[in-house]
User: Fold this.
Amino acid sequence: MKHKSYQLHIQIAVIYFLVAALLGLLLRSYPIFAFDFNYRFVVHAHSHIALLGWVYVALTTLLHYFFVDKDASSRRYKRIFWCTQATLMGMLVTFPFQGYALFSIIFSTLFLIVSYVYVYHFWKNINPKYRHSKGLQCAKAALIYMVISSLGPWALGAIMNTLGAQSIWYRLAIYFYLHFQYNGWMILALVGVFIYVWEQRGLEISSKTFARFFISLNLGVVLTFFLSTLWTKPSFWFYVLAGLGAVAQFYAFVLLWGMFRNKITKLSFSKVHHLFLKTIVILGLIKIVLQLLTALPYFANMAVNYVDFTIGYLHLTFLGIISIGLFLFMDYFSLFRISKKSYLWYFLGFLLTEALIFYRGMAAWQQWNIFNEHLEILALLTLLIPLGIAMMLIENRAPK
Assistant:
């Protein structure tokens, strides 16, 4: 496969991101204009297109571009890619109008099956020269977590038919899926790509330090799932396990930072790339601090009772760490150019909406009065995000 094909695939992923952002804008505008649509159905469409259209397509394209033997796999990979697009388009035209119903469930199920085919295809066609790559080790673990996360959606059908949607197991299945998607699959895949960049520059990574990092990160991924169970008011040991998971992730973060801190200049990053990386590090640290806090019963209850904190945390992870991480590698490998101007519009929208969402959570918690026009201002600030993404797409009209 040619470089241009991968550029096209990344462009398609960014188009999904724009669609997801516009659906998010529509949701933020719902209470202002009293639109006549089913809010929950559009939430389903927004989340599926954001996770599976934007992040999944972008990440699987990057992993294939870096680690797979192109000569042995290009035709089969193209078929997998376009089958994936068919399932995504199916979800896009069914979820907003029927929510979880027959056709949307069919397309979601087909997506899962095609994603398994991708994992099998990736594993079978790894370029032999990367066999001992530490970046590949992280990418493989990420794909395993992606498959593990899919147990959540498979369980939903059985839970709906037996215990019903009001059961705690219904929410736990959704949280299981989300947790292993973003903490396992997405973040670990991005770490794998970062280490791949490092290895391509011929820079050594201590095997001993990497082993400690890899074990603590994976331990953190597994144990921090218990953070998603604390709303059920479980026994004391669940809080202990969740806390240990948060500490393990923090330790992994410290080890990663220690491995690369003084050698970043050797990666030949541009000023924009340094800006991306600094932002990811700061947001990653905030995420880890929030995880450490929510392992404590008081803050765990806060996260449950004030939904804005949860929404803010999820957006911090997806719009912040994961999306900006994808921007960094897409631009670094010239698959999709991102100018400082378009990025700043996007980041301004992200930063200001996050500030307002967390402020609303604080206001509910502390019983402050919130200003009257906050819904209108939130919708207006949200507009900056699709504006920034649209500018990126305009700047990349024709693959160079």
Notes: Residues 1 and 71 are 7 Å apart (CA to CA).
